[in-house]
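Each field is set out underneath.
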Amino acid sequence: MTTFLILGGARSGKSSRAQSLAEAAGPRRVFVATAEALDEEMTSRISRHRADRGEGWRTVEAPLDLVSVIGDASLSDEFVLIDCLTLWLSNLFHHDRDVEAETAALCDALRSPPMQIALVSNEIGLGLVPETPLGRAFRDAQGRLNQRVAAVCDRVEFVAAGLPLKLKG
């Protein structure tokens, strides 16, 4: 099964690109949401994303356990869109999870998934250096996560201004 990694900055069009890949694959689509509605602003963002997707999507909430979703054989006829790895990583930080172990488990699961998968992730290392040690640690962890996931995915694209640039595959 084909695995896609779609990278880009904030509001670059990466989620729209991943959705178009899923829609082109057929009518059986699952959106795996990693966001948690912890405040009003995030609740509003989640609502906007849901509206942007429109009909024809089944949603699975998985703020931490992406490996179980990827290993779920009942999804083998579905196109699974995981949006996004950056929020997943943030959740791992917030819940004091072992980022290296979780990343390794995710990459292992992506080596032979039972379904087509598109993963969306932010490229956050192109801007200013974060002010705080936590911000710098997160930026570095995000860069390492993106590299490791890109290494195991079949296709990798970078989206800027709504335009995809093929990096791999």
